[in-house]
From TrEMBL:
It comes from Ancylobacter oerskovii. PANTHER family: ACTINORHODIN TRANSPORTER-RELATED (PTHR42718:SF39), MAJOR FACILITATOR SUPERFAMILY MULTIDRUG TRANSPORTER MFSC (PTHR42718). It comes from the Bacteria. This is MFS transporter. It is a multi-pass membrane protein.
Length: 316
């Protein structure tokens, strides 16, 4: 039940996330998009503060004896607020021509990712059985089949899940590689939470509050991006990700000291988490701008299934 529920959350989140960036591109004029993307990034920081802290609070309160299960209930009032205010307030945008979902591409992409991730997650604990190696060997073949399918669909005038022509747009491939590295930080939250509670014997509430400096940095980073862009120009993204590297190296040093029995001091730990969050928040708006700018260039050209009305009206 838990795995099925999380899978449903993942599917719906994957549907929503591209629409947010597409809406920013469609609704705001060019001069306002940098500020809109900065606010978009700041909301991530606010969510990091509220999410981590409220998760620890809910587990500690043990509402109605639900324990950790209460963390899922926090999504319900948020979803209700989105429904109540999003529908009347957000401007509806749509492309001139509707496109059919690429169900074949979706299935092949899920099979490819599953063949890669399932053995990496479960293989070691299961003793690396034969099926895990079969899946790992089959993952490149599935990826090739997915790429061939998408190429043929694009050539036939369809709407592929991943348009191969997108990677030929100057700068977009590089931006997507940076995005891959950027979002690889996602595993940090789980691993650091396990470290705090398992190695340092910290309570769930204290664990949630420990992430507050990170969230504060992630909140202020995007808001500082317009100012930093005027100072450093195109180097803002590199500076932000560089700050992340510095923060993680410092955090690794603090954690290494715990092997000698010395727990990390609260203030240096908080400062390093703030640096990591600030660096990520600083880099996020410029990264989103690079990716969406490349997407606009990709779909601005004529296609057999119709020409898009404007750079803002593009498929997410």
């Amino acid at each position: 039940m838990l795995v099925a529920g999380r899978a449903l959350q993942g599917v719906t989140a994957a549907v929503m996330a591209p629409q947010a960036l597409a809406s920013v591109q469609a609704i705001f004029p060019e001069g306002e998009k940098p500020l809109a993307l900065s606010i978009y990034g700041a909301i991530f920081g606010l969510a990091a503060v509220v999410g981590q802290a409220s998760g620890g609070v809910l587990i500690s309160l043990d509402l109605m004896g639900l324990g950790w299960r209460a963390i899922f209930l926090i999504n319900l009032p948020v979803a209700m607020l989105v429904l109540l205010f999003g529908i009347p307030l957000l401007k509806e945008t749509r492309a001139r021509d509707a496109h059919r979902l690429d169900l074949g591409g979706m299935a092949l992409s899920m099979l490819t990712l599953g063949a890669l991730l399932v053995p990496l997650i479960e293989g070691r604990e299961a003793g690396w059985p034969l099926w895990s190696w079969v899946l790992l060997v089959g993952a490149p073949l599935l990826a090739w089949l997915f790429w061939r399918y998408e190429t043929r669909l694009a050539g036939a005038g369809g709407a592929p899940l991943l348009d191969p022509s997108a990677l030929r747009v100057p700068g977009l491939g590089r931006a997507l590689l940076i995005a891959l590295l950027f979002y690889s930080i996602g595993s940090f939250f789980l691993l650091f939470s396990v470290y705090l509670q398992g190695a340092l014997q910290v309570t769930p509430l204290q664990t949630g509050l420990a992430f507050l400096p990170f969230g504060a940095g992630f909140l202020f980073g995007p808001l500082s991006t317009p100012f930093c862009r005027r100072l450093f120009g195109a180097y803002v993204n590199a500076i932000g990700m560089g700050l992340e590297v510095v923060g993680f190296l410092g955090l690794a040093g603090l954690i290494a000291a715990t092997l000698t029995g010395v727990h990390p001091a609260p203030m240096p730990l908080a400062a390093l988490l703030f640096v990591i969050g600030f660096g990520q928040g600083l880099a996020l708006p410029t990264l989103m701008a690079m990716v969406t700018a490349g997407s606009r260039r990709t779909f601005r050209h004529d296609r057999r299934d119709g020409q898009l009305d404007s750079p803002g009206q593009h498929r997410a």
